[in-house]
UniProtKB/TrEMBL annotation:
Family membership noted in the UniProt record: Belongs to the ORC2 family.
Subunit structure: Component of the origin recognition complex (ORC).
GO cellular component annotations of the record: nuclear origin of replication recognition complex
Entry keyword set: DNA replication, Nucleus
UniProt keyword Nucleus, yes or no: yes
GO biological process, one term: DNA replication
Protein name per its UniProtKB record: Origin recognition complex subunit 2
């Protein structure tokens, strides 16, 4: 049975770069065989500089890899590829079997000298994708199953690994509460602005949107229309990923958050929308198409400006 998770609250919150208990983290990491294998720092505000200070001042003698989980490009594959590349494991793997890939990485790391250690620093690990991404949880379990590898993650609430999951039990995390109340550069509070730059209006014309729209699969088209309708309903302000997912799932267009995210990548790549996060780490999308252009496009396609289900 895994040990009972310990929660410790740190009261000093104003200047985290001086008040954060780095020595306490150092003690946890250097006590030899420990019931705690990994560390999760949770609380309000961005904690990226905490991870950077740990990397530069307390973990400088071992291999470290920093991950920004709020990045739109952060996926299980990218996570595994980064470990493979940074550790120079020279694994060639093109399949989508992430568990097999993770096991190959674990086996290669296990061949390294006993003095080798790897710290995975994951900032904002409690965003929507990772909370529901069981494949990522399983890969993290596999790679961190050896004493040579551990992770230090940050989040807003102690929800990673997800409570009740096997990852929660197997990863044996020490939970330390510490709030910085600092905004991350990845948080974008300007996404609710009603007016966008002129460049956005020039870039997005009805014709260019139509070219992309016509190339989409049937369900991806439906998802695009749903999101545009939600933007309109929300007075062109940002919308939450959770709301989009629930609506799309109810219509049987998607089965999982990861599937929806793959479809939405098309909209992000063409800068129709922009991904951002609120202070709790929840994913939001803001519209990058001028509302007049969007209205003209939807009218030209005969698409209702409002979701018909809203009237039921």
């Amino acid at each position: 049975m895994a040990p009972e998770l310990q929660y410790r609250e740190v009261n000093e919150k104003l200047f985290y770069n001086t008040n954060f208990p780095y020595k306490e983290i150092s003690v946890i990491l250097n006590t030899g065989p420990s019931i705690f294998r990994n560390i999760v720092i949770y609380g309000i505000g961005d904690k990226s500089e905490i991870l950077e200070n740990l990397r530069d001042n307390y973990l400088s003698k071992i291999k470290t890899i920093f991950f920004e989980a709020n990045s739109i490009r952060f996926r299980t594959r990218m996570f595994l590829d980064a470990i493979n590349e940074e550790c120079k494991l020279n694994i060639i793997f093109s399949k989508n079997d992430f568990l097999q890939y993770a096991n190959m990485i674990k086996d290669e790391i296990d061949k390294r000298p006993k003095t080798f250690s790897l710290a995975l620093l994951i900032n904002n690990c409690d965003n929507d994708e990772l909370i529901y991404d069981t494949a990522f949880h399983d890969c993290l379990k596999i790679i961190c199953s050896k004493k040579k590898v551990f992770f230090i993650a940050t989040c807003t609430y102690p929800l990673f690994p997800p409570p009740g999951s096997s990852a929660r039990e197997d990863l044996r995390c020490y939970f330390l509460k510490f709030s910085t109340f600092n905004l991350s550069v990845n948080y974008n509070n300007k996404d609710d602005a009603m007016d966008l730059d002129d460049d956005d209006e020039v870039t997005h014309k009805v014709e260019s949107i139509k070219v992309v729209y016509d190339s989409l699969t049937s369900n991806t088209k439906k998802l695009f229309v749903l999101m545009m309708q939600q933007f309109i309903k929300n007075n062109f302000k940002s919308i939450f990923s959770d709301d989009v997912f629930l609506s799309a799932k109810d219509r049987f267009w998607v089965n999982s958050v990861s599937q929806m995210q793959e479809m939405i990548t098309e909209f992000l790549d063409h800068k129709f929308i922009e991904k951002c996060h609120d202070l709790s780490g929840k994913i939001k999308y803001s519209l990058r198409i001028k509302r007049t252009v969007l209205n003209d496009f939807m009218e030209s396609e005969g698409i209702e400006l409002e979701d018909e289900d809203d009237d039921e």
